[in-house]
Design a protein that fits this description.
The chain is of the alpha+beta class. It is built from 3 helices and 10 strands; from the N terminus they run E-E-E-E-E-H-E-E-H-E-E-E-H. It folds into 2 domains: 56 residues, no CATH class; 115 residues. The strands form 3 sheets. The protein has a 5-stranded antiparallel β-sheet with strand order 6-7-8-9-10, covered by helices on one side.
Length: 188
Protein backbone atom coordinates (compact mmCIF):
# COMPACT_ATOMS: atom_id res chain seq x y z
CA UNK A 1 0.00 0.00 0.00
CA UNK A 2 1.32 3.44 -0.97
CA UNK A 3 2.38 5.96 1.67
CA UNK A 4 0.01 8.96 1.69
CA UNK A 5 -0.45 12.02 3.87
CA UNK A 6 -3.39 14.43 3.91
CA UNK A 7 -2.35 17.93 4.93
CA UNK A 8 -4.40 20.38 7.01
CA UNK A 9 -5.44 22.04 3.74
CA UNK A 10 -7.18 18.80 2.68
CA UNK A 11 -4.70 17.96 -0.06
CA UNK A 12 -3.45 14.34 -0.28
CA UNK A 13 0.22 13.75 -1.02
CA UNK A 14 1.78 10.48 -2.24
CA UNK A 15 5.33 9.37 -1.51
CA UNK A 16 7.18 8.62 -4.76
CA UNK A 17 10.54 7.05 -5.53
CA UNK A 18 12.83 7.78 -8.44
CA UNK A 19 16.46 7.52 -9.51
CA UNK A 20 19.00 10.08 -8.33
CA UNK A 21 21.21 11.78 -10.85
CA UNK A 22 24.37 10.20 -9.41
CA UNK A 23 22.78 6.80 -8.79
CA UNK A 24 20.70 5.54 -5.94
CA UNK A 25 17.07 6.19 -5.02
CA UNK A 26 15.37 9.43 -4.03
CA UNK A 27 12.04 9.92 -2.26
CA UNK A 28 9.67 12.85 -2.71
CA UNK A 29 6.05 13.82 -2.11
CA UNK A 30 3.71 14.74 -4.95
CA UNK A 31 -0.02 15.25 -5.28
CA UNK A 32 -0.04 12.88 -8.26
CA UNK A 33 -1.24 9.37 -7.47
CA UNK A 34 0.45 7.80 -10.47
CA UNK A 35 4.05 6.79 -10.96
CA UNK A 36 6.48 4.87 -8.81
CA UNK A 37 4.85 5.01 -5.37
CA UNK A 38 6.78 4.07 -2.22
CA UNK A 39 5.24 1.46 0.05
CA UNK A 40 7.31 2.27 3.12
CA UNK A 41 9.25 5.16 4.59
CA UNK A 42 13.03 4.93 4.26
CA UNK A 43 14.87 4.21 7.53
CA UNK A 44 15.67 7.30 9.56
CA UNK A 45 13.10 9.51 7.82
CA UNK A 46 9.72 10.95 8.83
CA UNK A 47 6.82 12.78 7.23
CA UNK A 48 6.86 16.45 8.14
CA UNK A 49 4.08 18.96 7.51
CA UNK A 50 5.00 22.63 7.74
CA UNK A 51 2.79 25.16 9.46
CA UNK A 52 1.57 26.28 6.01
CA UNK A 53 0.49 22.71 5.09
CA UNK A 54 3.40 21.73 2.83
CA UNK A 55 4.42 18.08 3.15
CA UNK A 56 8.05 16.90 3.12
CA UNK A 57 10.07 13.79 3.81
CA UNK A 58 12.91 14.67 6.16
CA UNK A 59 15.48 12.98 8.31
CA UNK A 60 14.32 12.38 11.86
CA UNK A 61 15.66 15.22 13.94
CA UNK A 62 16.82 15.34 17.52
CA UNK A 63 14.32 17.36 19.52
CA UNK A 64 15.86 19.19 22.45
CA UNK A 65 12.55 20.63 23.64
CA UNK A 66 10.48 18.41 25.92
CA UNK A 67 6.84 17.51 25.34
CA UNK A 68 5.75 19.14 28.61
CA UNK A 69 7.25 22.45 27.47
CA UNK A 70 5.29 22.31 24.21
CA UNK A 71 2.15 21.34 26.16
CA UNK A 72 2.59 24.39 28.42
CA UNK A 73 2.45 26.70 25.40
CA UNK A 74 -0.48 24.80 23.89
CA UNK A 75 -2.50 25.12 27.11
CA UNK A 76 -1.89 28.87 27.24
CA UNK A 77 -2.77 29.33 23.57
CA UNK A 78 -6.03 27.36 23.95
CA UNK A 79 -7.18 29.80 26.64
CA UNK A 80 -6.71 32.81 24.34
CA UNK A 81 -9.82 34.58 23.14
CA UNK A 82 -10.20 36.36 19.84
CA UNK A 83 -10.25 35.49 16.18
CA UNK A 84 -6.60 34.52 15.73
CA UNK A 85 -5.37 30.97 15.20
CA UNK A 86 -2.03 29.73 16.54
CA UNK A 87 0.36 26.89 15.76
CA UNK A 88 3.58 25.81 17.43
CA UNK A 89 6.57 24.46 15.54
CA UNK A 90 9.45 22.73 17.27
CA UNK A 91 12.83 22.60 15.53
CA UNK A 92 15.90 21.54 17.44
CA UNK A 93 16.08 23.83 20.45
CA UNK A 94 13.52 26.41 19.27
CA UNK A 95 9.78 26.71 19.88
CA UNK A 96 8.19 29.07 17.35
CA UNK A 97 4.63 30.36 17.62
CA UNK A 98 2.85 31.16 14.37
CA UNK A 99 -0.22 33.37 14.20
CA UNK A 100 -2.98 33.64 11.63
CA UNK A 101 -4.65 36.97 12.15
CA UNK A 102 -8.33 37.00 11.43
CA UNK A 103 -9.68 34.93 8.60
CA UNK A 104 -10.41 35.60 4.99
CA UNK A 105 -13.31 33.20 5.46
CA UNK A 106 -15.88 34.43 7.92
CA UNK A 107 -19.46 33.57 8.66
CA UNK A 108 -21.80 36.17 7.28
CA UNK A 109 -25.30 36.59 5.98
CA UNK A 110 -24.04 35.19 2.67
CA UNK A 111 -23.40 31.79 4.33
CA UNK A 112 -26.28 31.22 6.77
CA UNK A 113 -26.07 27.43 6.37
CA UNK A 114 -22.51 27.18 7.71
CA UNK A 115 -22.35 25.61 11.16
CA UNK A 116 -19.77 26.81 13.73
CA UNK A 117 -17.86 23.52 13.25
CA UNK A 118 -17.73 23.98 9.48
CA UNK A 119 -16.61 27.58 9.93
CA UNK A 120 -13.75 26.44 12.19
CA UNK A 121 -12.73 23.78 9.65
CA UNK A 122 -12.67 26.34 6.82
CA UNK A 123 -10.69 28.82 8.91
CA UNK A 124 -8.08 26.16 9.74
CA UNK A 125 -7.91 24.90 6.17
CA UNK A 126 -7.39 28.31 4.53
CA UNK A 127 -5.39 30.07 7.26
CA UNK A 128 -2.01 31.59 6.47
CA UNK A 129 0.41 31.62 9.40
CA UNK A 130 3.44 33.76 10.08
CA UNK A 131 6.04 33.45 12.82
CA UNK A 132 5.57 36.03 15.58
CA UNK A 133 7.18 34.71 18.77
CA UNK A 134 9.87 32.18 19.58
CA UNK A 135 11.61 30.70 22.59
CA UNK A 136 15.13 29.29 22.15
CA UNK A 137 16.62 26.88 24.69
CA UNK A 138 19.83 28.49 25.96
CA UNK A 139 20.45 26.40 29.09
CA UNK A 140 19.42 22.74 28.73
CA UNK A 141 20.35 21.86 32.31
CA UNK A 142 18.24 24.57 33.96
CA UNK A 143 15.67 24.57 31.07
CA UNK A 144 15.94 28.30 30.36
CA UNK A 145 14.61 29.79 27.13
CA UNK A 146 15.41 33.16 25.52
CA UNK A 147 12.27 34.99 24.28
CA UNK A 148 12.23 36.78 20.93
CA UNK A 149 9.53 38.39 18.83
CA UNK A 150 9.54 39.08 15.14
CA UNK A 151 9.97 42.77 14.34
CA UNK A 152 7.96 43.84 11.30
CA UNK A 153 9.62 47.22 10.78
CA UNK A 154 10.96 47.60 7.27
CA UNK A 155 14.41 48.50 8.53
CA UNK A 156 14.64 45.44 10.81
CA UNK A 157 12.46 42.50 9.63
CA UNK A 158 14.18 40.05 11.96
CA UNK A 159 13.97 38.49 15.41
CA UNK A 160 14.63 40.79 18.36
CA UNK A 161 15.23 39.85 21.98
CA UNK A 162 12.41 40.88 24.32
CA UNK A 163 13.74 39.80 27.70
CA UNK A 164 16.13 37.67 29.71
CA UNK A 165 16.05 33.84 29.60
CA UNK A 166 13.60 32.14 31.95
CA UNK A 167 11.53 28.97 32.30
CA UNK A 168 8.96 28.32 29.58
CA UNK A 169 6.12 28.56 32.12
CA UNK A 170 7.11 32.07 33.22
CA UNK A 171 7.77 33.23 29.66
CA UNK A 172 4.41 31.88 28.48
CA UNK A 173 2.61 33.71 31.29
CA UNK A 174 4.47 36.92 30.55
CA UNK A 175 4.35 37.06 26.73
CA UNK A 176 1.50 34.98 25.30
CA UNK A 177 -1.10 37.39 26.67
CA UNK A 178 0.21 39.99 24.20
CA UNK A 179 -0.43 37.91 21.08
CA UNK A 180 -3.04 39.42 18.80
CA UNK A 181 -3.00 42.81 20.53
CA UNK A 182 -1.21 46.12 20.02
CA UNK A 183 0.83 45.59 23.18
CA UNK A 184 2.76 42.85 21.34
CA UNK A 185 4.53 45.50 19.24
CA UNK A 186 5.71 47.29 22.37
CA UNK A 187 7.69 44.24 23.58
CA UNK A 188 11.45 44.78 23.34
Amino acid sequence: MAITHTSRTGKTYYLHTGPKRGGGLQYFFSSKSTGSLAEQLPDGFEIYESVQGQVFLRRKTLRLVRDDEVACLERRLEKRRGGNLYKIETRGKTLTIFESAGSSFGKSEAYPWISPQQEAQFRERFAYYQAVLRFTLVDAERRLFAPERYCFRGSVDDWISIGPPDSIEKLAAKYLKHLGSDSFFELF
